[in-house]
Amino acid sequence: MSLPVSQIVVTSPAKLAFISGQVALNAEGELIGPNDYGQVFMNLKLTIEAAGGSAEHVTQMRIHVVNHGPELANIVFQAGAEVFGSEWPLTASTFLGVQAIAFPEWLIEVDAIVALPQQN
Fold first, then answer.
1. Domains recognised in the chain with CATH numbers
2. Global pTM?
């Protein structure tokens, strides 16, 4: 089985950004849909870019999925690939099935650590 992850990521000294769990909320804070995995990854991508980074700078990503079953792994990774395209972050990753996250209508949450590029 081939997964879009890396076993280890080594970075040069860098400024780190720790991105809180992203969920399927739009810019107004409204839930797009409990299973809208694409919105979660779009929020993550926009947050990475707002910090001054890009997908290549992601060093770690944790994906938490409520009531995860094996059938969801490909669906979640496909949603991420649709948002990031060929720039999907090959990073140290953890994919966890969990009983619940902060609110019952939230069914996926993704957080990340980003090693930001040095500014000249």
1. 15-116 (3.30.1330.40)
2. 0.87
